[in-house]
């Protein structure tokens, strides 16, 4: 563990005034993230921050496709923009609504809620950024309020990254928000409700990290076992464009002084690969060594195992590239292996499996690799690779599609196996598209796989919406 100097700022919050829907009378166990209608199936949220809304270029949109026994079902969907009735604000050019997504049952009513980042929103100055909470209900998402932004003069692009969980270990769900500096991470404290006041929070910066890039990605999970979730932070080293990543316990007031270093990377996912009760971390770094000294030819993913104190320093990280024995393909310049990562139990054996996107593969046609968890950790045995040319996958691989730019492993069908959803934001000259493959005992199956683009879910194809730039985190 390396000690880092930091400045910590604390601020009290004042109540937010907004038009809100009435509180629901439904009371139940908190829903799993992204289960917006409480039916036990994970729904799929798809960000298209480049979408044109009412003639406003790059205003941004989010499609939510609800889960069903056959997977994401486009006939049951919700389209969200800042012009949607009941949403705070209004769609404006370059807002980039939908750049980041996160979910939790913030008000513990049995329906998961959706957090949407809009880092291009103008406020007291250009690109202040904002975050919107959209509330879940039996009929899906409905009603919204803004997440309080309590240091608006001290950061920009608020909402460029998001995570939700009980990070301060007080029993209420909180929201971690990434921004550019001087404050790069904000913790908005729960409880977060439809009509209640805001309850405080904190903001911080780390002097060894770039304030111009800020916190670019967030993930979280119970790294230490049964306790509260910790947060994985991603940014850039000050004065460079090189990736940096760290593990933080936000229960500690001066958590920036106690960051645990992680392998440098731009994205991550958290899940228990070896079923030992401690969540593990997969860190993706898709860059070449010429662009980032921590990168690799064609990109790489590093798996760090969790333990009772956070990172298990007694266990060597597992480094994976397409040249690793058992991993399909070969490492080639520009593959961008590790640009997207997600952990989830595809085959229902209780061990988290890993999906890795390589959107630069084959002239940016793109590919996705799935590796499996086991009692000894992640294994390359039976690893599989998928492209749009794989039998049963709709469509065809074309240069520039970027299939695999985002991947997510979540159970859309309710069969307790994670389904593989993949986006290709470059499909059809920047329209973008999403695929979903059912989880099965042998891994993702192409039988019954589905694909859909922005037009199917009501998103305009004017310009380049980049449908799938963000997926369930």
Describe this structure in words.
The chain is mainly beta. The protein is 2% helix and 35% strand. The chain has 2 helices and 31 strands. The chain has helices spanning 361-364, 427-430; strands spanning 6-11, 44-48, 61-66, 73-80, 100-104, 113-118, 130-134, 144-146, 156-165, 174-180, 185-188, 201-206, 217-221, 230-236, 243-248, 260-262, 267-271, 280-285, 300-304, 306-307, 310-311, 318-320, 340-344, 353-358, 367-372, 379-386, 406-410, 419-423, 434-438, 445-452, 470-471. It has a 5-stranded antiparallel β-sheet with strand order 1-12-11-10-9, with no helix packed on it. It has a 4-stranded antiparallel β-sheet with strand order 4-3-2-31, with no helix packed on it. A 4-stranded antiparallel β-sheet has the order 5-6-7-8, with no helix packed on it. A hairpin with an 8-residue loop joins strand 13 (217-221) and strand 14. It is globular, with a radius of gyration of 20 Å. The two termini are 27 Å apart. 58% of the residues are buried. Residues 189-222, 413-432, 439-473 are annotated as: Disordered. One of its GO terms (molecular function) is hydrolase activity. One of its GO terms (cellular component) is integrin complex. It holds the Pfam family FG-GAP. This is FG-GAP repeat protein.
Nutshell version of this structure?
This protein is mostly beta strands. Helices cover 2% and strands 35% of the residues.
How are the SSEs placed, and which strands pair?
Blueprint: E1 6-11, E2 44-48, E3 61-66, E4 73-80, E5 100-104, E6 113-118, E7 130-134, E8 144-146, E9 156-165, E10 174-180, E11 185-188, E12 201-206, E13 217-221, E14 230-236, E15 243-248, E16 260-262, E17 267-271, E18 280-285, E19 300-304, E20 306-307, E21 310-311, E22 318-320, E23 340-344, E24 353-358, H1 361-364, E25 367-372, E26 379-386, E27 406-410, E28 419-423, H2 427-430, E29 434-438, E30 445-452, E31 470-471
Antiparallel strand pairs: 1-12, 2-3, 2-31, 3-4, 5-6, 6-7, 7-8, 9-10, 10-11, 11-12, 13-14, 14-15, 15-16, 17-18, 18-19, 19-22, 20-21, 23-24, 24-25, 25-26, 27-28, 28-29, 29-30
């Amino acid at each position: 563990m390396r000690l880092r100097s930091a400045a910590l700022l604390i601020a009290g919050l004042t109540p937010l005034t907004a038009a809100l829907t009435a509180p629901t009378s439904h009371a139940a166990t908190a829903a799993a993230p992204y289960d917006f209608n409480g039916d036990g199936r994970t729904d799929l949220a798809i960000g298209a921050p480049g979408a044109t809304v009412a003639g406003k270029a790059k205003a941004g949109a989010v499609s939510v496709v609800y889960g069903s026994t056959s997977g994401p079902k486009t006939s049951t969907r919700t389209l969200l923009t800042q012009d949607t009735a009941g949403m705070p604000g209004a769609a404006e050019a370059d807002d980039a609504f939908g750049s980041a997504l996160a979910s939790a049952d913030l008000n513990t009513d049995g329906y998961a809620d959706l957090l949407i980042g809009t880092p291009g929103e103008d406020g007291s100055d250009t690109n202040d950024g904002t975050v919107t909470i959209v509330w879940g209900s039996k009929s899906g998402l409905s009603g919204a309020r803004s997440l309080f932004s309590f240091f608006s003069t001290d950061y920009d692009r608020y909402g460029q990254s998001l995570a939700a969980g009980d990070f301060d270990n007080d029993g209420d769900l909180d929201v971690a928000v990434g921004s550019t500096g001087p404050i790069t991470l904000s913790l908005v404290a729960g409880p977060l409700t439809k009509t209640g006041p805001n309850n405080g929070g904190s903001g911080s910066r780390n002097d060894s990290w770039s304030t111009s890039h800020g916190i670019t990605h967030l993930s979280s999970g119970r790294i230490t076992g049964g306790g509260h979730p910790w947060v994985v932070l991603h940014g850039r080293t000050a004065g460079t464009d090189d990736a940096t990543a760290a593990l933080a316990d936000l229960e500690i007031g001066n958590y920036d002084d106690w960051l645990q270093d992680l392998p440098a990377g731009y994205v991550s996912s958290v899940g228990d690969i070896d079923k030992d009760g401690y969540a593990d971390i997969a860190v993706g770094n898709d860059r070449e060594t010429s662009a980032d000294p921590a990168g690799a030819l064609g990109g790489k993913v590093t798996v760090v195992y969790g333990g009772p104190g956070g990172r298990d320093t007694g266990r060597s990280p597992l480094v994976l590239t397409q040249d690793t024995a058992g991993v399909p393909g070969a490492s080639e310049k520009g593959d961008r292996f590790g640009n997207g990562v997600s952990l989830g139990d595809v085959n229902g054996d209780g061990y988290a499996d890993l999906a890795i996107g390589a959107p630069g593969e084959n002239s940016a046609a793109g590919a996705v690799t799935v590796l499996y968890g086991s009692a000894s950790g992640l294994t390359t045995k039976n690893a599989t690779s998928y492209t749009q040319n794989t039998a049963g996958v709709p469509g065809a691989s074309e240069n520039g599609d970027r299939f695999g730019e985002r991947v997510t492993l979540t159970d859309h069908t309710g069969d307790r196996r994670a389904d593989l959803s993949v986006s290709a934001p470059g499909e059809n000259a920047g329209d973008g598209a999403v695929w979903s493959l059912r989880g099965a005992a042998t891994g993702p199956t192409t039988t019954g796989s589905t694909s859909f683009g922005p037009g199917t879910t009501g998103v305009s194809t004017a310009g380049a919406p980049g449908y799938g730039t963000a997926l369930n985190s």
